[in-house]
Write a structure and sequence with these properties.
heterodimer; A: alpha/beta; Rossmann fold; 7-stranded parallel β-sheet; 35% helix; globular; B: mainly alpha; Urease accessory protein UreF; 11 helices; 69% helix
Chain lengths: 216, 238
C-alpha cells in the first residue's frame, strides 16, 4: 500500500452545474478546519476553471498555494481522462503526493454528462456528482451512471427551482428510489446554503474524521 | 485454444498500440491544435489538404529520427540490463524536448505507461529498476524511452517496437485532428492507411540509427508546438 496516498474526491457534473463554485465554497470551510487541499481541474477547453479557482482561492484569499491548483487539458474527452485512461490525472496526483505529503485531500474536478460520467476507482476514492435543478426535476429519475454510482449526489441551484418548475421533493424521492441509502444533498452554492453538509460528508466518509496532518 | 500465459509479441504490440491502452496519448495533439488555431481559421480547407504532408513530416522528421531512435536505444539498454544506459537515454530524451509542456506530458505519459506494463505480468527486474529510478527522480520516464524499456521486457523486438510507436503517435495526431473538427472519421482512416509504408520504413531506419545520429528538422511544427504552450484556450495538453 502506498503510505503517502492522499485521499481523493472526484467531483463530476455537467457543464454549468456548479462544480467549480462548489469547490470554491468547500475549500474555505475545509481550510477553516485546518485541512490542506489541492485541486486538479479537468477542463474540456482551456484552463479557465483552474485559473478562476487559482484567482479566487489562492491569489485573493491565500487559502491554497497557487501551485496546488492545477489544470489538466483532456483532449476534449473528460470522461476518458477520469475513467478509461486517468494516466495524466494519476501523474499529477503522484507529483502532489511526492512534493506535498502534508496535504490532507485532493479534489479532482471533471465535466461530464449524467449518462456516462464516473471516476475510475484508481483515481478517486469518493465520487460526488452534481446536477442543477434547471434540467428539470426528472434528472434523478432518468438515472445514468453519474447519478446512480456517485457516493454523494448534490443538487445545486435550488433557489431556481420555482422558476423552472422543478419540485425538489420529487427529486429527493426519486433520488432515494434510484440511489437507495446513498445520500443526496440540496445546495445553493452561490449563497453557500447546504454546502456545510457536503463538507461534513467529506470529513466523515473520506477523511474519517482524522485531524489535519499539520495539526496531528 | 492456447493456454500460454504470456502472449506473443504481435499480440502485445496490438495491446500497446491500441488507443485504449492507458497512456494519456488521447490528450495530446503534438502542436496540431496550435496549427489549426493559427492557420486553419476561419477556413480549415487548406490545412486539411496539407494534412497528409504534415503527418508525413511528423513521422519522418521528428518522431522517427528522434523519438523512435531513442526508443530503440532504450530497448538495447534494457536487453543488456543496463539501467545507467537507460537513464542516460532518458535524460537525453528529456533534454531534446525543448517545449516545457511537451517535456512534462511525455514524462507523465511515459511513467504511467511503465506502471501499466508492470501491471500486465510480473515485471522484469530492469523495468522495476527503471520505474524506481523515475520515482526517485533519477530519470524522467520520457515516453519513447519508457516504451523502449517496456517493449523489450514484454518481448516486442526493437524494430516492431519502433513501428508500433510511430503508428500510435500518428494515430494520436489523427485522433486529435478528428476531435478538432479538421477531418472526418473516414478521412482520418485514409490518412493512416496511406502512412503505412512511411511508418514501416521510418521504423526500420530508426531501429538502426546510432545515438549520435539523432536529428530533427521540422521548424514549422516545432514553432507551433512552442505556440501551443502559450494558447489561452485549448483542449489538448500539447
Amino acid at each position: 500500500m502506498n503510505q503517502r496516498r492522499i485521499p481523493r474526491v472526484g467531483i463530476g457534473g455537467p457543464v454549468g452545474s456548479g462544480k467549480t463554485m462548489l469547490i470554491e465554497r468547500i475549500v474555505p470551510l475545509l481550510s477553516e478546519m485546518g485541512y490542506r487541499v489541492a485541486i486538479i481541474s479537468n477542463d474540456v477547453v482551456s484552463k479557465e476553471d483552474a485559473d478562476r479557482m487559482r484567482k479566487n482561492l489562492a491569489t485573493e484569499r491565500g487559502l491554497v498555494p497557487a501551485d496546488l491548483v492545477i489544470g489538466v487539458a483532456t483532449g476534449g474527452c473528460p470522461h476518458t481522462a477520469v475513467r478509461e485512461d486517468p494516466s495524466m490525472n494519476l501523474s499529477v496526483v503522484e507529483e502532489l503526493e511526492t512534493k506535498h505529503p502534508d496535504l490532507d485531500l485532493i479534489l479532482i474536478e471533471s465535466g461530464g454528462d449524467n449518462i456516462t460520467t464516473t471516476f475510475s476507482p484508481a483515481l478517486a476514492d469518493y465520487f460526488i456528482y452534481i446536477v442543477d435543478v434547471s434540467g428539470g426535476d426528472k434528472y434523478p429519475r432518468k438515472r445514468g451512471l453519474g447519478i446512480e454510482n456517485c457516493d454523494l449526489l448534490v443538487v445545486n441551484k435550488i433557489d431556481l427551482a420555482p422558476y423552472v418548475g422543478a419540485d425538489l421533493s420529487v427529486m429527493e424521492r426519486d433520488a432515494r428510489i434510484v440511489r437507495g441509502a446513498k445520500p443526496t444533498l440540496f445546495v445553493n452554492a452561490r449563497t453557500s446554503e447546504g454546502v456545510s453538509a457536503v463538507v461534513q460528508q467529506i470529513v466523515k466518509n473520506v477523511l474519517f474524521d482524522a485531524k489535519p496532518k499539520l495539526a496531528a | 485454444m492456447t493456454t500460454d500465459a504470456v502472449p506473443d509479441f504481435e499480440f502485445s504490440m496490438m495491446q500497446l498500440a491500441d488507443s485504449f491502452f492507458p497512456t494519456g496519448m488521447f490528450s495530446m495533439s503534438s502542436g496540431l491544435e496550435a496549427i489549426l488555431y493559427e492557420t486553419g481559421r476561419p477556413d480549415a480547407a487548406p490545412l486539411r489538404d496539407r494534412m497528409p504532408q504534415l503527418l508525413e513530416t511528423y513521422v519522418t522528421n521528428q518522431l522517427g529520427p528522434v523519438d523512435a531512435v531513442l526508443l530503440s536505444h532504450a530497448h538495447d539498454r534494457a536487453a543488456q540490463n543496463d539501467l545507467g544506459g537507460i537513464v542516460e537515454v532518458d535524460q537525453l530524451a528529456h533534454a531534446m524536448r525543448t517545449v516545457k509542456e511537451a517535456r512534462q506530458a511525455s514524462a507523465r505519459s511515459g511513467s504511467q505507461l511503465l506502471r501499466a506494463v508492470a501491471a500486465l505480468q510480473p515485471p522484469a527486474a530492469i523495468l522495476t529498476d527503471y520505474i524506481d529510478a523515475v520515482r526517485r527522480g533519477d530519470a524522467t520516464g520520457s515516453f519513447p524511452v519508457a516504451l523502449g524499456v517496456a517493449s523489450q521486457t514484454i518481448g516486442i523486438p526493437k524494430e516492431p517496437a519502433c513501428v508500433m510507436f510511430l503508428y500510435s503517435a500518428a494515430v494520436s495526431i489523427v485522433g486529435s485532428a478528428l476531435r478538432l473538427g479538421l477531418l472526418d472519421h473516414l478521412e482520418g482512416q485514409r490518412l493512416i492507411h496511406h502512412l503505412a509504408t512511411t511508418v514501416r520504413e521510418t521504423g526500420r531506419r530508426s531501429a538502426g540509427t546510432p545515438l549520435a545520429g539523432l536529428w530533427q528538422f521540422d521548424p514549422e511544427i516545432q514553432l507551433f508546438q512552442i505556440h501551443h504552450e502559450r494558447l489561452r484556450s485549448k483542449m489538448f495538453l500539447t
